[in-house]
Amino acid sequence: GQQVMQIPQYQHVQEGEDFTTYCNSSTTLSNIQWYKQRPGGHPVFLIQLVKSGEVKKQKRLTFQFGEAKKNSSLHITATQTTDVGTYFCAGESGGSYIPTFGRGTSLIVHP
Amino acid sequence: DTAVSQTPKYLVTQMGNDKSIKCEQNLGHDTMYWYKQDSKKFLKIMFSYNNKELIINETVPNRFSPKSPDKAHLNLHINSLELGDSAVYFCASSQAGTSGAGGQFFGPGTRLTVL
Fold first, then answer.
1. To probe the interface with A, which of B35, B40, B41, B57 has the most A CB atoms within 10 Å?
2. pLDDT at position B99, please?
């Protein structure tokens, strides 16, 4: 079955440093979604990427979808303490509307 | 207005009991889901359901059963609770079936503790 690998599992940064999390799928994806879960909270949908090579920005967050539609990344510029949480990617493929979630990357920002 | 709501928020119960968790969405979505999140934060899909199709993750024990009285509700019933069932359970909804439909909306979660 489809697998979505996400690295790193944890990332400690000093406030102001940049952060990147990566997702790789074993199969070609129709789209990839990104979610953020704050400690004690629930996953919140951030964005969906559909097109090969697509790049989207939300303020300090930059999302990329690979040319082969098998990998994606989320980059945060100049992290803030409000960025703390676990970031999940979730990929859909093969006409299924059920995304496969990566294991998440937990971001810890030290002030 | 809450888009996806779940009750209860916390559930503490004894092994062997039967319990239900309720979920409602007011987004008009046609597909609802149940996820289990363990202590390591892994989000495991349990069920996906719309008015046409129920998809069950084959690794989910048959003690777990989804019940949908209507399109806006998907409840989760658990029989004979076990210690390993302790986790946070999330309900979610989406407008499925169309590419670029815009992701899933999650409820606040139900923290289940089995003693």
1. B41
2. 45
Residues A43-95 have pLDDT tens digits of: 999 999 999 999 999 999 999 999 999 999 999 999 999 999 999 999 988 76
Give the bridge partners for B78, in sequence order.
Answer: B19, B64
Any idea what the CATH number is for the domain that residue B100 is in? 2.60.40.10
Domain CATH number, residue A52: 2.60.40.10
**Position B109 pLDDT exceeds 60:** yes
- Chain A CB contacts of B97 below 8 Å: 97
Domains held by chain B: number:
1
**Å between A15 CA and nearest CA of chain B:** 24
Encoded tokens for A17: 């440093």
Tokens 């210690």 sit on residue: B83
Total count of residues recorded for chain A = 111
Domain span at residue B58 reads: 4-114
